[in-house]
Write a structure and sequence with these properties.
With 693 residues, the chain is of the alpha/beta class. Among the domains are: 20-236 and 291-303, Response regulator (Rossmann fold, 3-Layer(aba) Sandwich), CATH 3.40.50.2300; 523-650 and 661-693, no CATH class. The strands form eight sheets. The protein has a ten-stranded mixed beta sheet with strand order 3-1-4-5-8-9-13-12-11-10, sandwiched between helices. Strands 23-24-25 form a three-stranded mixed beta sheet. Strands 2-14 form a two-stranded antiparallel sheet. Helix 2 crosses helix 7 (198-209), helix 15 (438-448) runs parallel beside helix 17 (471-480) and helix 20 packs parallel to helix 22 (601-611). The longest helix has 17 residues, at 506-522. The chain is globular and about 75 Å long. 50% of the residues are buried. Residues 1-10, 654-665 and 669-693 have low confidence and may be disordered.
Length: 693
């Protein structure tokens, strides 16, 4: 394998000479059938993308972005959406692709999509027509890749998307409660693309189009491949032993590889899993990350450095591709909840430098914020106005992974190039981070001025520890862009779990709430904050959950729907859950911080019950816990008590319908999937409204 070289900045995403099939032009929709291919004049597809989602030709859906980008590069792209995986027949529908298969589970991990945090099967799937569950297999990447091989065995298989991205190394799998091998090895794919795929997929397509062998593509940034060993010319840094200290000195990232403990080691010793997680996350800055290698039996998984972030012109080019901005006509008007949620929203940026340990956004999209230009965003608003059926003038979101990181960045490129911090805002906001919300305020104002746009509300989660740095932003937001409620995520009130989440203390939330309430009062509005929380996160004790419940009651808040922590593959919090060690600090066999973790179903249900302290069905469980914790003083009839001593007729010892709400209390719905799944939460003073997905 040749050493990787620094990318020429002039060679951007759209600078390559188009593939010869560019002459076929732009398809109204990427074809999902032979009949559509015939109408386009195609005898074959160059690339066939297989996805576990319904095909919606919109930039909020990964397969649409990848497909339209490859089309712009000159390739003929077909889509197999939610194919029948019971045999290879459905995978033959478009014929063999000339260059490669592109396989993804969809916008969500198939296991997170299919199962609750209690491992119960969900009955619905927001990415499927009519919200129907069961239209994709468990571990969809594995199944789809295998069926592609069965259909046409000699065609290269490239896997990607969130499911493959978070399983690129040996990973703890919550659903089977064991460490599994890299999905690259189990799927027998040729290449795994992780993170945002644009750069890697364009390079792979053009090189295959030039008849280069897929076996030669070992050094593409943002990919993982199987190798037999460390190639000649690379210096290996062995970091398999947590008791050997390594100093991150100046090394050539293009000629150095970091070895982490093998699959066999991390599967046998949870402490080594935590150590491997710590090492791997240290190699996440695209400016200084080195390749990582992990042995699996007789072979090695080689993970190249992350993809370089897209520039603003490149982001504009991606979001300016000729999307139909609608579901494929094959769905004949079926309701697709994920589409209903985003069709009037605009993604203005990518990435997140928050580094929350339970969330996969940073691990997937990176810490560097990639921004679109104002002009690109305003054009999309006009497209929604002119092209999206049912638009009444209400834009439901201008955001992304967070609502307010637009154009926030490190003040010094040289510092950014060597930084290995996991978060720019924890334990405190880095002094080198620019926190000027001025560009976002200007964007809001220009967006409101677009003819036909009557109202813009912000649906993305707000990073309130950044917002408090800009009173002008809070005023602008509350005055013009809050639709009765605003969701934010303190996640907890207690310092123990917050330190394991890498989240700010509750005092920062209190400060933001004060600013929010003052701005709402000045605007003459009656607005509410929706705080949402995680139950049973690593580092959370029963006492922590009790204190959170007391805080909720003291503030007159009732959680209507909650979700316990779900250990998604590769996250730092999942490493804590599995190993019961804290990889945010050095991990040693003779020491290191032990993390208390709620693993048993009974304890996880108790933590969830504390969040729903008002539900009479939970009172017996909570009373038992309060007695065990020596807090019987919280059992009684008054407002200062958490639960009463009596039990209403018909209320048992499990979760059920919520009890009646007392005057002055607010009911809120809160969800957290642990995978960065964007949710809509509703709060009503009189009654709780149905939440979105």
């Amino acid at each position: 394998m040749a050493k990787s070289s620094k990318r020429d900045p002039s060679n951007d995403l759209f600078s390559r000479r188009p593939y010869w099939a560019k002459r076929f032009g732009v398809a109204p929709f990427l074809p999902m059938s032979r009949a559509e291919m015939d109408r386009l004049g195609w005898d074959s597809c160059d690339v066939i993308l297989v996805t576990g989602d319904a095909y919606i030709d919109h930039p909020s859906f990964g397969m649409a972005i990848v497909g339209r980008l490859l089309e712009e590069q000159g390739f003929r792209v077909g889509i197999l959406s939610q194919p029948d995986w019971s045999s290879a027949d459905a995978f033959k529908a478009l014929g063999p692709p000339n260059l490669f298969w592109g396989v993804t589970a969809g916008n969500m991990d198939s296991m997170v999509n299919r199962y609750t945090a209690d491992r119960k099967i969900r009955s619905n799937d927001s990415y499927t027509p009519n919200d129907e569950g069961g239209k994709r297999p468990d571990r969809a990447v594995l199944v789809y890749a295998q069926r592609c091989r069965e259909a046409f065995k000699d065609i290269p298989v490239v896997i990607g998307g969130i499911e493959a991205s978070l399983r690129r190394v040996a990973h703890y799998d919550y659903w089977s409660d064991k460490v599994r091998r890299s999905v690259l090895m189990d799927s027998k794919a040729d290449i795994l693309v992780y993170g945002n795929a644009e750069r890697a997929i364009v390079e792979i397509a053009h090189r295959l189009g030039a008849r280069e062998s897929v076996q030669n593509m070992k050094a593409v940034r943002g990919t993982a491949v199987m190798v037999d060993g460390v190639p000649e010319g690379f210096a290996e840094i062995d970091m398999t032993d947590p008791d050997v200290e390594h100093v991150h000195g100046p090394t050539d990232p293009h000629a150095t590889v970091v070895r982490v403990p093998s699959f066999e080691q991390v599967a046998a010793e949870p402490l080594l899993y935590a150590h491997a997680s710590r090492v791997l996350h240290a190699e996440s800055n695209a400016s200084n990350a080195r390749p990582v290698i992990q042995r699996h039996g007789e072979r090695e998984v080689w993970i190249n450095p992350p993809p370089l972030p897209l520039s603003t012109p490149e982001m504009d080019g991606v979001y300016g591709l000729p999307f139909a901005r609608a579901p494929h006509p094959a769905y004949a008007g079926a309701r697709i909840p994920a589409w209903e949620m985003i069709k009037f929203s605009v993604n203005i940026m990518r990435g997140c430098f928050g580094g929350c340990t339970f969330c996969s956004i940073t691990e997937h999209e990176g810490r560097v914020i990639q921004n679109r230009s104002e002009a690109s965003i305003l054009r999309e608003l006009e497209d929604i106005r002119d092209k999206t059926e049912g638009f009444t003038g209400h834009i439901t979101d201008l955001g992304g992974p967070t609502a307010n990181m637009y154009r926030l960045a490190c003040k010094d490129d040289k510092i950014q190039a060597v930084c290995r911090r996991l978060s720019c805002v924890y334990p405190s906001i880095c002094t080198n981070l620019g926190t000027d919300h001025g560009p976002l305020i200007q964007l809001y104002r220009k967006a409101r001025a677009v003819p036909g746009v009557k109202r813009i509300t912000i649906g993305s989660g707000l990073r309130y520890d950044l917002a408090v740095k800009s009173p002008a932003y809070v005023k602008e937001l509350v005055t013009h862009h809050v639709g009765g409620y605003l969701k934010i995520a303190p996640e907890h009130t207690e310092p123990g779990p917050l330190s394991k989440m890498m989240k700010p203390g509750i005092a920062t939330y209190d400060r933001f709430k004060q600013m929010f309430d003052q701005a709402a009062k000045k605007a003459g509005k009656e607005y509410y904050l929706i705080p949402y929380f995680i139950a049973a996160h690593p580092g959370t004790s029963d006492e922590d959950m009790m204190n959170l419940a007391v805080w909720l009651k003291a503030h007159g808040l009732r959680a209507d729907q909650v979700q316990t922590f779900l250990p998604s593959p590769m996250s730092i919090a999942t490493a804590m859950y599995y190993s019961e060690r804290n990889p945010l600090k050095p991990v040693h066999r003779g020491g290191g911080e032990v993390v208390a973790t709620a693993k048993g179903l009974k304890q996880r249900r108790l933590h969830k019950a504390f969040l729903r302290y008002h539900d009479a069905n939970n009172w017996p469980m909570i009373r038992d816990a309060l007695k065990r914790l020596g807090r019987e003083d919280l059992i009684g009839p008054s407002k200062k008590h958490l639960v009463p001593a009596w039990q209403p007729r018909g209320a048992g010892g499990g979760e059920g319908e919520r009890s009646g709400r007392k005057h002055g209390e607010q009911t809120f719905r809160t969800q957290h999937a642990g995978q960065g799944r964007r949710t809509k939460s509703k709060l009503a003073k009189g009654k709780a409204r149905k939440p979105g997905h």
